[in-house]
Design brief:
Blueprint: H1 2-18, E1 30-35, E2 38-40, E3 43-47, E4 50-56, E5 65-66, E6 81-86, E7 90-95, E8 103-109
Parallel strand pairs: 1-4, 3-8
Antiparallel strand pairs: 1-2, 4-6, 5-7, 7-8
Length: 111
């Protein structure tokens, strides 16, 4: 019986060692609402790998345009949405190209 237990334990360890490494689970999404000519929240902190969904709840068109050109939603009409996945840690500032006083920031932390 002792040898059977050892054999089962050895087989289990061998299978675990041969299994492919687990990949990180995708990060749950986050969202930014565009309303009353403002982004809410104005600053959003997320983990790397998170997809942010921007939704325009204003009746006017808006954009989500990165200061460094990394992403640009183009014009979002009322109830329009745009998604962007932030893979690299850093601070990403964006504006509405139509209404440049509208500003937001995404802070991406390491996983």
């Amino acid at each position: 019986m002792k040898y059977q237990s050892i054999a089962v334990l050895a087989a289990t360890i061998a299978l675990a060692a041969a299994a492919p490494p687990q990949t990180a689970a995708p990060q749950p999404g986050a969202s930014v609402t565009i309303a009353n000519f403002a982004y809410a929240p104005a600053t959003l902190t997320i983990a790397a790998g998170t997809t942010v969904r921007f939704r325009n709840d204003d009746s006017d068109a808006h954009t989500v345009t990165a200061d460094d050109g990394m992403f640009d939603s183009g014009g979002l009409d009322a109830h329009g949405t745009y998604q962007h996945t932030f893979d690299q840690p850093g601070t990403y500032r964006y504006v509405c190209a139509i209404h440049p006083w509208m500003k937001g920031t995404i802070v991406v932390t390491p996983r």
